[in-house]
Amino acid sequence: MNWYVIPGAFALLLAVSGTATLRTGWVPHRLRHRVRRVALHGWAQVLMAGSFGLQSAGGFAGEPATGSAVGLIAVLTMLAALVLLLVSQLGPRDE
After folding, report:
1. How far apart are CA 13 and CA 6, in angstroms?
2. Other CB atoms within 10 Å distance of the CB of residue 27
């Protein structure tokens, strides 16, 4: 099995969800009681989608060093997205 398909599917799912959150303010039902800053949550999902996209693109890198560098950037991007997700659950609720 090609392991670039799974992160690519996650990237597509998160990109659609993040875009829907940014455009309409829609948050999945299981997260509605936690998310306090909807726009920040949407941007975090889009950033996480980019991270999964980078992981998927790292499989196409010809050089092992290039693939490792892309993987490192993907991990750092994922950590930044997780911090944004945490911050979107703190503070006053957007109205």
Report:
1. 11
2. 19
**Token pair of 5 as six digits:** 């398909």
Q: What is the pLDDT along the chain (95 residues), one digit of tens a residue?
A: 577 788 888 999 999 999 999 999 999 889 888 899 999 999 999 999 999 998 888 777 778 888 788 889 999 999 999 999 999 999 777 66
User: pTM of the predicted model, to two decimals?
Assistant: 0.86
Is 36 in a helix, a strand, or coil?
Answer: coil
How big is the CA angle at 9 (ends 6 and 14), to the nearest 5 degrees? 125
Instruction: Please state at what angle helix 5-24 crosses helix 38-58, rounded to 10 degrees.
Output: 160
